[in-house]
Specification:
mainly beta; Jelly Rolls; 7-stranded antiparallel sheet; 6-stranded antiparallel sheet; 1 helix; 38% strand; globular; disordered C terminus
Length: 249
């Protein structure tokens, strides 16, 4: 074995060994459900905004055009997965938004952000029909988890894939959509947002997608149990008493 090949293998092993998945509840195991369960009926992975891994699951479309929740019908790992269902959507619909909790990161460091997905074999999306989209947004924050640091990172994946190519997502296997992301200098926290939506094309979007094993992989922040530290506002200065009004003659 050449020294160059050995060095490359060692670098790959080192990067893999140091990569932890920093996203909590990444495989959508809580709350536990039986069958396909809507977010409004007990399948809210954000636990009504209080989950350790996910802090918001929002449906912002028209009625039940696009719905989401948890299911134990299928999974890549564990017992459950997250599903998104497009119910004959014929208009532009902002659909589903899923937001992670704040993830402690090391600034100026490379991470891998992604999620595994596959189509429901009983209700697949039509590769030649009206496409849906999955959009990834990664934001970075200072220690207060409120002050933005650097620019957000965006990426878009058509569902089930681009019409000019073989569909990326299929019914018989899980596929990994992911993006390498480098945290900007000064970043202490990152936050991941996934959007599922449709645009105003002709036709309708119908079918179900399953998602599992979301990832935010890379070196953990060396500070144990790092939590957001809100910036304290300075207390008002009460040392100076209000000036007395001059006495009337």
């Amino acid at each position: 074995m050449s020294m160059r090949l050995l060095f490359s293998i060692l670098l790959l092993w080192s990067a893999t060994a140091c990569a932890d998945n920093l996203l909590k509840d990444s495989s959508f195991e809580t709350p536990e459900v039986l069958g396909r369960t809507l977010s409004t009926k007990g399948g809210d992975v954000s636990h009504n905004g209080h989950g350790p891994g996910w802090i918001m699951l929002q449906t912002s479309g028209t009625g039940s055009a696009i719905t989401a929740g948890l299911t134990n019908e299928i999974s890549r790992h564990g017992l459950q997965s997250f599903y998104v269902q497009f119910n004959h959507v014929a208009t532009a619909d902002p659909g589903i938004t899923l937001v992670s909790n704040f993830i402690p990161v090391v600034s100026g460091t490379l991470y891998d952000v992604g999620i595994w997905g596959r189509m429901d074999p009983k209700a697949p999306l039509d590769p030649q029909g009206r496409m849906a989209y999955m959009k990834l947004e990664v934001d970075f924050f200072a220690k207060d988890a409120n002050t933005s640091i650097g620019d957000p990172v965006y990426s878009v994946q058509p569902l089930p894939g681009s019409k000019d190519h073989d569909p990326f997502y299929k019914t018989a296997e899980w596929k990994f959509f992911h993006l390498p992301v480098t945290t900007p200098p000064g970043a202490v926290f990152a936050q991941v947002t996934w959007h599922w939506e449709t645009e105003a094309d002709e036709g309708e979007t119908n079918g179900v997608m399953f998602f599992d094993d979301a990832e935010f992989s890379g070196p953990p922040n060396p500070v144990p149990d790092l939590t957001p530290a809100p910036v304290e506002e300075p207390a008002p200065d009460t040392s100076a008493s209000p000036s007395a009004s001059p006495a009337m003659p």
